[in-house]
Amino acid sequence: MRIDILCLFPEMLASPFDYSIVKRARERGLVEVVVHNIRDYSHDKHHIVDDYPYGGGPGMVLKPEPIFEATESIKERVDYSDLPIILLTPQGRLFTQQVARELALHQNIMLICGHYEGVDERVREHLVSDEVSIGDYVLSAGELAAMVVVDAVVRLIPGALGSPLSFHSDSHSNGLLEYPQYTRPKVYRGWTVPSVLLSGNHGEIARWRWQQAILRTLKRRPDLAKQGNLSAEE
Ligand code: 9D3
């Protein structure tokens, strides 16, 4: 997979892909992440990327030309048969594990980072194939959202995780939150590990974990429990 990111602050994206699973996936040649500065595609002497909004009002708006030209230049250099172009914006559809799975099916994706100033609507109408938000809170830069999207997508690429089974038990992949985990010591400051986990009875342990996962989901995230994720027995 190749992921191109168009943004205004490429320095923000210098290190987040140099750790952990994303680093390993890059080293294994499973993914290439290429960061581009939109400013490099602005041709005027000051490399201007934004301008005043028509109709007036506060703030600035990202100009369409550098964004269109950046995507066209990248498409010329790399042979893309299918290139979803995703605008990261607070107005996008909510990024969930399901959306991450969808994006992970593509050979290439391009992410465009929005900014406080907003983006000329023609970018949305005539360039972008999808708009994604990572949640209902306000960030100051779309680069932060790009880090989240890249991470969640890359770990779904086959071979990115150590074991092919490790993501099956992740929170949200089965619609439930994870069960509580304990490690040594058996007693810490007087707080004990649930005795079932020390019992050696693997059937009982599996059942307890499954019950805990359901209880936790119902209590903390009834929205997840409601989405038809629970079977009659659960
Ligand atoms: C002035 C109105 N603001 C919309 C709520 C404008 C605005 C604020 C912040 C426009 C862009 C931004 C920067 N955020 C993103 O680009 C962004 C984002 C986010 O703020 N929250 C959740 N997901 C995302 S994806 C990109």
Radius of gyration: 22 Å
Q: Which CATH top level class of the largest domain fits?
A: Alpha Beta
Q: How can the largest sheet be summarized?
A: 5 strands, parallel
Classified in CATH, the superfamily of the largest domain is: SPOUT methyltransferase, trefoil knot domain
Order of helices and strands: EHEEEHEHEHEHEEHH
The N- and C-terminal alpha carbons lie at a distance of 37 Å
Q: What is the count of distinct domains?
A: 2
- Helix count, DSSP H or I runs of 4 or more residues: 7
The CATH architecture assignment of the largest domain turns out to be 3-Layer(aba) Sandwich
Strand segment count: 9
Query: Quick one: overall form?
Result: elongated
What order do the strands of the largest sheet run in, or round the barrel if closed?
Answer: 2-1-6-5-7
Mean pLDDT level: 94
Note poorly predicted spans. none
Written overview of the protein:
The chain has 234 residues and is of the alpha/beta class. The chain is built from seven helices and nine strands; from the N terminus they run E-H-E-E-E-H-E-H-E-H-E-H-E-E-H-H. The protein has helices at 20-27, 64-77, 97-104, 121-126, 142-154, 202-220, 222-226, and strands at 2-7, 32-37, 50-51, 61-62, 85-94, 108-113, 130-133, 187-188, 191-192. A five-stranded parallel beta sheet has the order 2-1-6-5-7, sandwiched between helices. A two-stranded antiparallel sheet has the order 3-4. Helix 3 links the parallel strand 5 and strand 6 (108-113). The chain starts with a strand and ends in an 8-residue tail after the last helix. Bound molecules: ligand 9D3. Ligand 9D3 is lined by residues 88-90, 114-116, 118, 133-135, 137-142, 145.
